[in-house]
RNA sequence: GGUGACGUGACCGAGUGGCUAGGUAGAGGUCUGCAAAACCUCCUACAGCGGUUCGAAUCCGCUCGUCACCUCCA
């Protein structure tokens, strides 16, 4: 498959041409949500960007298998090993079954992803459903001498691993430097041989709600393990693209690579490690711990001190895609307002391209070569942007340039006659494809049907009192076409759905 | 402290050794009953100071500033 798509690979620190392991198949894995609280806008960036990547790869003709996990077990609270996992903690606080908490947030996450236009992943495995696989992986790592058991917990032996492999290859870290930087941070880590070691399996204390039997007693899996285990199960020992937020690069993804190397495959799990940058608020990373976050629900409702109004899901998607995924993007009310208008403009273009017909009596120019070439260049620019490390910002800029052309044709049919039919069709189809299929921006109906109906009934009432029965009949018939019955009652005009 | 990024016009935000980014906002114009939309024109910026170069916002150095990771985080 010939195409010039290049992606920046964190592992190689440069843009490399994308070559799948098993063409035409592409396996991609994205670290999904930990379903113990409401997702914020920052959490939406990865899925949106990864969705565009999946859409574009499909557009290029690949058969994509997209896996995104749901983390419903295990992530420790804080950096001590005494913590309880987040879901258990919340469940205890609310007197709920832990899975109830997870399920409820997972459902909400799905709704948000849906309205954000994210195609569901092909497989959405849950950590809790893959305990067996995770235990199996731990056993492999132990058998290879890269993990040890202490008091019912199993730890990954980073120094041992680093003697044969390179721990830190993804994030550019050096084990010696990491060691020197962690000296005063040893509280509660006495079970570990090295402070860099990380848990593969944790013994559950009596308070811990989520627990599973294992060869080492009752416990739960470590926080980096699920992705390695599930990625391997559904995508193979070496798959194509592993994505996630930049803040997962270390230690999470670093540990994933170590686990994969140490257990079985001697691969880096994925060929391309794909990291999106953070959303900032006033220049500072949006994060749960800092508390400067806007939840997705708050954004959609306009329910936040930083927001003057509600912003629709598609506005949010457009806003995210207007920046390149490897840049930080600062979220402000002004920026969102600008995005809302830009998004609308793009949507108006979607309707505009259906109206570009040569008027009766207008002759198409004999030689359209120049105009055709110009139009094709504008289309090509969009793809150049996408191919260059999925630069959606450039692609969108290209779309606006195209749209300006289309609007010009519409205003001045003379100029429309200068361009050939084939080139025009290509361009309008490219516009539609890029906007809807690749960027995944759909037209959100803006008009409120009830209000429009109310307006129509107002005209109906006015026509009636003016005894303009011709108009009255026209309105009634038109509404009947839409399945709406107008009802003249003593109390006034009302309506009902036709039964 | 270690490591790594970044500083673009009123705002957001691409990009790059020489060629218009784009969106939003603002000004003028065309169109229009008024308006809106659209189109045309304008506002032509790259933190500061040096250096390399025929030429740098783009490469190098220094200074200032901001941020990220090193701990749960997309």
UniProtKB/TrEMBL annotation:
Q: Which SMART domains match?
A: DALR_2
- Keyword RNA-binding on entry: no
Organism, as annotated: Hymenobacter busanensis
Q: Which GO terms describe its biological process?
A: cysteinyl-tRNA aminoacylation
Where is Zn(2+) annotated to bind?
31, 227, 252, 256
Which HAMAP family does the UniProt record give? Answer: Cys_tRNA_synth (MF_00041)
Q: How is the cofactor bound?
A: Binds 1 zinc ion per subunit.
Q: What is this protein called?
A: Cysteine--tRNA ligase
Q: How does it assemble?
A: Monomer.
Q: Which gene encodes it?
A: cysS
Q: Which GO terms describe its molecular function?
A: ATP binding; cysteine-tRNA ligase activity; zinc ion binding
């Amino acid at each position: 498959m010939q195409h010039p798509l290049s992606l920046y690979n964190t592992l190689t620190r440069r843009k490399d041409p994308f070559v799948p392991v098993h063409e035409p198949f592409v396996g991609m894995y994205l670290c999904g949500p930990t379903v113990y609280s409401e997702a914020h806008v920052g959490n939406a960036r990865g899925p949106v960007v990864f969705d565009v990547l999946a859409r574009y790869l499909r557009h290029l003709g690949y058969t994509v298998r997209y896996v995104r996990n749901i983390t419903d077990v295990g992530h420790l609270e804080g950096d001590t090993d005494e913590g309880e996992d987040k879901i258990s903690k919340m469940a205890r606080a609310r007197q709920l079954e832990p899975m109830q908490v997870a399920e409820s947030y997972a459902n909400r996450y799905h709704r948000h992803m849906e309205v954000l236009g994210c195609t569901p992943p092909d497989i959405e495995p849950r950590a809790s459903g893959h305990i067996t696989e995770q235990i199996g992986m731990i056993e492999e790592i132990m058998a290879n001498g890269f993990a040890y058991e202490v008091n019912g917990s199993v730890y990954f032996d980073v120094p041992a691993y680093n003697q044969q492999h390179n721990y830190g290859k993804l994030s550019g870290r050096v084990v010696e430097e990491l060691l020197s930087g962690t000296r005063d941070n040893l509280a509660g880590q006495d079970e570990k041989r090295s402070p860099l070691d990380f848990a593969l399996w944790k013994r559950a204390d009596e308070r811990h709600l989520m627990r599973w039997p294992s060869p080492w007693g009752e416990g739960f899996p470590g926080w980096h393990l699920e992705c390695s285990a599930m990625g391997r199960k559904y995508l193979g020992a070496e798959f194509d693209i592993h994505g996630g937020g930049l803040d997962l690069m270390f230690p999470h993804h670093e540990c994933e690579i170590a686990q994969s190397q140490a257990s079985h495959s001697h691969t880096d799990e994925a060929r391309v490690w794909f990291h999106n940058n953070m959303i900032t608020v006033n220049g500072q990373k949006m994060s749960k711990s800092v508390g400067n976050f806007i939840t997705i629900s708050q954004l959609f409702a306009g329910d936040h001190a930083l927001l003057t109004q509600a912003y629709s899901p598609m506005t949010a998607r457009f806003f995210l895609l207007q920046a390149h995924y490897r840049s930080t993007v600062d979220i402000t009310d002004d920026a969102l307002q600008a995005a809302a208008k830009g998004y609308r403009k793009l949507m108006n273009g979607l309707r505009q391209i259906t109206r570009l017909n040569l008027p009766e009596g207008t002759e198409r120019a004999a030689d359209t070569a120049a105009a055709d070439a110009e139009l094709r260049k504008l289309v090509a620019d969009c793809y150049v942007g996408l191919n260059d490390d999925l630069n959606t910002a450039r692609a969108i800029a290209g779309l606006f340039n195209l749209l300006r052309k289309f609007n010009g044709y519409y205003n001045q049919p003379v100029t429309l006659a200068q361009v050939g039919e084939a080139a025009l069709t290509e361009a309008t189809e490219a516009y539609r494809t890029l906007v809807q299929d690749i960027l995944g921006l759909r037209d959100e109906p803006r008009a409120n049907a009830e209000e429009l109906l109310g307006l129509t009934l107002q005209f109906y009432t006015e026509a009636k009192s003016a005894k303009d029965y011709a108009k009255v009949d026209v309105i009634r018939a038109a509404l009947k076409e839409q399945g709406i019955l107008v009802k003249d009652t003593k109390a006034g005009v009302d309506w009902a759905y036709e039964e």
